[in-house]
């Protein structure tokens, strides 16, 4: 909801500047405003071009962030499954590593999807290296005795590195994806633009309604930029069902493996 509030503020401020323009246009002599329309039109045209280009670029960038996070989630999910298969192929000696996979998934889920209604994200990149140590300890403790186990261990190391590297990339991209200063500059351009619109137009019901619709359009663009730049908060959030499904599949796989081992031991 915090993004909706910020977008509403952008729309209200933009509309307020249009009203200021309407009011100033009524206060100034008509001849004075008419004589200045050339300059007013030039500045309005410049600001309109800048605003259209930058808003379009920011929406495209935010959408790229959204799609990038989605692709990286798929990369993590695939690497998690392959890591579990590699450890399962290694043998029962790697059971501790398979248990650690569950913890890796749970920590990643808690790190990405936040439940704060204000949308405040505390990204702690420094916590990730410490979380790597348990799995590295598992790898160090394993002593492969044949080529098959060596291949599975090497594959497990590669998949685990993919998981860690992908998480680091995702976390870094979530730290201030759209700088506040940049958004402030864009809002300033929209205020100047709508001030010019109001200054060069007579104040009547139609022009005020159109100014309100234009301000709403700017606010909705800001909303899209903010929402898409953090895919784990707000309306356009990526679903958690993928992570939950992987957790469920791993738990089911562990149960099947344990049952198979019990039957083998009984036999």
Automatic annotation (TrEMBL):
The chain crosses the membrane at residues 39-60, 180-200, 206-226. InterPro entries: DUF4239. Pfam families: Bestrophin-like. Keywords: Membrane, Transmembrane, Transmembrane helix. It comes from the Bacteria. This is DUF4239 domain-containing protein. It comes from Roseiarcus fermentans.
